[in-house]
Amino acid sequence: MDRLKVALERLDVAIDHLDAAFDHHKARVFAERDELARALAVAQEAEAEARAVADNVSARLDTAIDRLQTVLED
């Protein structure tokens, strides 16, 4: 019986270590996920700003082209 008791105690310790390792890993994964979500939000905001600038530049170029065509037609 002593050997069984020792084996069960060792098993309990091993399970506790596995639980702790899993909890640590899970916390790290959640932290990485949260950081990736923040980085994605920043990237999406930067993309939206870049699109706005590109739209503005496109509109200004269209206006300039129209003016040049008007001048060349006269």
Question: Would you give an account of this structure?
Answer:
- It comes from Skermanella aerolata.
- This is DUF4164 domain-containing protein.
- With about 70 residues, the chain is mostly helical.
- It contains one helix and no strands.
- It starts with a helix and ends with a helix.
- The model has no long low-confidence stretch (mean pLDDT about 95).
* Structural class assignment: mainly alpha
C-alpha end-to-end distance: 108 Å
Mean pLDDT reading? 97
User: Which band does the percent of strand residues land in?
Assistant: under 5%
Unreliable stretches, pLDDT < 50, 5 or more residues? none
Largest sheet composition:
none
- Overall shape: rod-shaped
- Listing every helix as H and every strand as E from the N terminus to the C terminus, the arrangement reads H
Helix content: over 70%
According to DSSP, the number of beta strands is 0
Give the radius of gyration. Answer: 32 Å
Q: Number of DSSP helices? A: 1
